[in-house]
Design goal:
Keywords: Kinase, Transferase. With about 280 residues, this protein is α/β, with parallel strands linked by helices. It contains twelve helices and five strands. The longest helix has 27 residues. The chain starts with 8 loop residues before the first helix and ends with a helix. It binds adenosine monophosphate (AMP) and magnesium ion.
Length: about 280
């Protein structure tokens, strides 16, 4: 177990029939240290993550079919972008395949909801990152009835079958649902309206969506109850403390990559012979 953790992050955050309405979004499950210790640890652990990711990439180059997919879900301002910058930002970009899923385009709307998702699945050796995902199709789509109930109701089973297929093809799936309080969201939206460098992140619709908070909580609850499988587990991440959220996701990825038991690929040439050739050259 990593330093300062009283409990493995996978145990501390694994979804297990909790009521998200009761979640303390300012808690730091499993972590015994404070912010300062958390930040120091984040930079140390970022190095470990980067090493593991490089192994994944190297193995992908030599025929290993495996990959990792991080799915990030959360309301606006929950910190998904911060995870991408501060956690994924610590690894080599050539091994990362990042996708943000926004409102579907006209072309995407003409296809099944998983169509655009399939196209962005990580290839062997890659760490795929989804900033929003197919879960929007049972979150925003459910809350705003973008499709009839009969249709979104079927999507949970379709998602499970899809993720089973993805996992069987060699992708380790890590799903993280980030939760902040309604007050914390207000603070963060305030900041977006007070700083010129943050206007670009703000949409007037974000305030409208705050009015649907209970409906979103209900929709998230259904996601966690109906799509939390052992081949694609959900982790419930209290995200009021950005430092904690970043550290926790770093540990979740380290855990997933460690589970792959990745060694460096062996040389497919005779090292001694190549050394002799090099010295003679
Ligand atoms: P942002 O992540 O702030 O760039 O916002 C992306 C927006 O796209 C959010 O309002 C999402 O709810 C919306 N969005 C993402 N996926 C879907 C989807 N499948 N259907 C409808 N809206 C979506
Ligand atoms: Mg937004």
């Amino acid at each position: 177990m990593a330093k300062n953790w009283a409990q493995p992050v996978t145990t501390a955050l694994r979804a297990d029939s909790q009521r998200i309405a009761d979640l303390d979004t300012s808690s730091t499950p499993g972590f015994a240290g404070d912010k300062q210790q958390g930040q120091t640890l984040l930079s140390e652990r970022g190095v470990v993550l980067s090493d593991l990711q490089e192994r994944l990439f190297a193995n992908g180059r030599t025929g290993d079919k495996r990959s990792v997919l991080l799915v990030l879900q959360g309301m606006d301002t929950a910190g998904k972008g911060g995870i991408v910058r501060h956690v994924i930002g610590s690894v080599d970009p050539q091994g990362v395949d990042h996708t943000s899923f926004g409102v579907p385009t006209e072309e995407e709307k003409r296809h099944d909801f998983l169509w655009r998702i399939r196209k962005r699945l990580p290839v062997p050796g890659q760490l795929g990152v989804f900033d929003r995902s197919h879960y929007e199709d049972v979150l925003v789509a459910r809350v705003h009835e973008l499709v009839p109930r009969a249709e979104w109701e079927q999507r949970y089973d379709k998602i499970n079958a899809f993720e089973r297929e993805v996992a069987d093809a060699g992708t380790t799936i890590v799903k993280v649902a980030m939760f902040i309080s309604l007050d914390e969201q207000k603070r963060r939206l305030h900041e977006r309206l007070e700083r010129a460098d943050k206007y670009w992140k703000f949409h007037p619709g974000d305030i409208t969506e705050r009015g649907y908070w209970p409906e979103y909580q209900k929709a998230y609850q259904a996601v966690l109850e109906r799509t939390n499988t052992d081949y694609a587990p959900w982790y419930i991440l209290p995200a009021d403390h950005k430092w904690y959220a970043r550290l926790a996701v770093t540990e979740l990825l380290i855990d997933a990559l460690t589970g792959l038991g990745l060694d460096w690929p062996p040389a497919d040439f005779d090292v001694e012979e190549q050394l002799r050739r090099l010295d003679a050259s």
